[in-house]
Amino acid sequence: MSETKFTPGPWSLVPQGNGSQMIGRRYETDNQMSPYGLRLVCHVFARGDSLMQDEANGHLIVSAPRLYAELDILVKVLSSLENAGLLNLRGVGTLNGPRAALALARGESDHG
User: Looking at residues 15-41, what average pLDDT do you find?
Assistant: First the structure.
């Protein structure tokens, strides 16, 4: 498993006047007039017919770094149990799905 290349979290959601949202990582600057900046990750554009869905998409995107970190911890803990022969979860089978999701987030596999 490689290191992540995406912008580290936490990410912030910055609503725009038109219903759109900018998402990025806040950082401090040396500029007293503008002490904070935003390392833009993405811009969620508001579409008139789906404003509620667009807002929900923004919240999901903002949570991505934390979701990744939490899933990574779970996979590591469960992997150690699996390697020790102590993991027997009915219906789960393997950790292949969560591992594939982490690899997808790191850009190590195709989207799909």
Answer: 88
